[in-house]
TrEMBL record:
It comes from the Bacteria. The keyword Transferase applies. Keywords: Nucleotidyltransferase, Transferase. This is Molybdopterin-synthase adenylyltransferase MoeB. The gene is moeB. Residues 9-245 form the THIF-type NAD/FAD binding fold domain. Gene3D superfamilies: NAD(P)-binding Rossmann-like Domain. InterPro entries: ThiF/MoeB/HesA, ThiF_NAD_FAD-bd, Ubiquitin-activating_enz. One of its GO terms (molecular function) is nucleotidyltransferase activity.
Length: 252
């Protein structure tokens, strides 16, 4: 690290659990962020400020006025621009020393396999089960840890699925991909703006812990947040030996 980086990241370096070695791991890491919306905004901003060396933002949507209530990567002036490009501008304004790749696309299985294979950690900030399962399959296949978050109305959830650990479940163990789950859109059901900030920031924290190799991740635990009562519930999640994705019959 150069003198400017030592100064920029000094508050991390002062932490015994992180130090220079942990910060260097962050600078050498690549984070793949799927979705530059409500969750992806705070997650990507904290990854950038904390010094993740390479951030890849994937989103095929454009900035809309209705997004600005919660999607803090974007501004009124960038309404109509691709979210990935708007997000890239925000991240580089915050930290011009990192690399930010903006991909305006909806990645299919083949593309996800390519992108996940180049990542140190993946943050699923998408808003539909099809994408979540596709990301999960790619992470299991390439043994890359996945930080998954979701928010709707006043409810949030977050967990980590780490295929590097034999006992860690995958997303499909919790939400089987062969079962039907109804996608609920915030455009029809609404979402409490600060809640995506809470969960997205926690996604960044879990991703940083993984790449810096500090603390204990949320692997094997699902945290549920009731934003009205501001109460957290922790649920243990076990690996399903019969899971078609990560179980004995799957690709692992």
């Amino acid at each position: 690290m150069n003198d400017k980086q030592l100064l920029r990241y000094s508050r991390h370096i002062l932490l015994d659990e992180i130090g220079i070695e942990g910060q260097q791991r962050a600078l050498a890491a690549s984070a793949l962020v799927i979705g530059a919306g409500g969750l992806g905004s705070p997650a990507a901003l904290y990854l950038a400020s904390a010094g993740i060396g390479r951030i890849v933002l994937v989103d095929d949507d454009e900035v809309d006025l209705t997004n600005l209530q919660r999607q803090i990567l974007h501004t009124t002036e960038r309404v109509g621009q691709p979210k990935a490009e708007s997000g890239r501008a925000a991240l580089l304004a915050l930290n011009p020393e990192i690399e930010v790749v903006a991909l305006r696309e909806r990645a299919d299985d083949a593309r996800l396999a390519e992108l996940v294979g180049q990542a140190s950690v993946v943050l699923d900030c998408s808003d539909n089960f099809a994408t979540r399962h596709a990301v999960n399959r790619a992470c299991v296949a390439h043994t890359v840890p996945l930080v998954s978050g979701a928010v709707i109305r006043f409810d949030g959830q977050i967990s980590v699925f780490d295929p590097r650990a034999k006992e860690s479940p995958c997303y499909s163990c919790l939400f089987p991909q062969d079962q039907r789950f109804e996608d609920v859109a915030c455009s029809t059901m609404g979402v409490f703006a600060p809640l995506v900030g809470v969960v997205g920031a926690m996604q960044a924290a879990e991703a940083l812990k993984l790449v810096m190799q500090i603390g204990q991740s949320l692997a094997g635990r699902l945290l549920l947040l009731d934003g009205r009562a501001m109460e957290w519930t922790s649920i243990g999640v076990a690996r399903n030996a019969g899971c078609p994705v990560c179980g004995s019959a799957g690709c692992v």
